């Protein structure tokens, strides 16, 4: 049952069709519409626009991108560096997402505020698996022989 539910969530995330307008994007991120237009003109972000003179619509991914660029701008970086840092961060998140989606993680609650996540088998020895324990906000990584 859990696997079916997780597959549904994966599909929803990958196929998300939720779009927001430029005004909404500006309100949510604190970035002015003129900045958004400039970033789009420079190719840093993109929108979807049906016919000419229709509203520009932005995906949730673009919302995250604008928030991240703004975060780095607020830290004092130039726009070019902020865009570069956002891209590096996005690529790292994509790698992590690929890891999460490609693994068959097993999550088990073992008590109040504690649990265990099985991360997968060791590449060099398929009889050993890696698992994480979480207890009271602290995590640890461990190895154990698998039960055959």
Automatic annotation (TrEMBL):
InterPro entries: DNA-bd_dom_put_sf, MerR-type_HTH_dom. Residues 19-80 form the HTH merR-type domain. This is MerR family transcriptional regulator.
């Amino acid at each position: 049952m859990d696997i079916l539910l997780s597959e549904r969530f994966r599909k929803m995330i990958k196929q998300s069709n939720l779009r927001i307008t430029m005004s909404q994007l500006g309100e949510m991120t604190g970035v002015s519409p003129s900045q958004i237009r400039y970033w789009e003109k420079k190719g840093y972000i993109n929108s979807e626009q049906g016919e000419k003179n229709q509203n520009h619509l932005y995906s949730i991914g673009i919302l995250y991108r604008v928030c991240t660029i703004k975060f780095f701008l607020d830290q004092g970086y130039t726009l070019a560096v902020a865009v570069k840092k956002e891209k590096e961060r996005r690529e790292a998140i994509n790698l992590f997402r690929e890891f999460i989606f490609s693994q068959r993680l097993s999550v088990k609650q073992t008590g109040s505020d504690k649990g265990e996540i099985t991360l997968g088998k060791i590449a060099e020895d398929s009889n050993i698996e890696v698992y994480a324990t979480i207890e009271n906000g602290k995590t640890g990584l461990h190895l154990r022989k698998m039960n055959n």
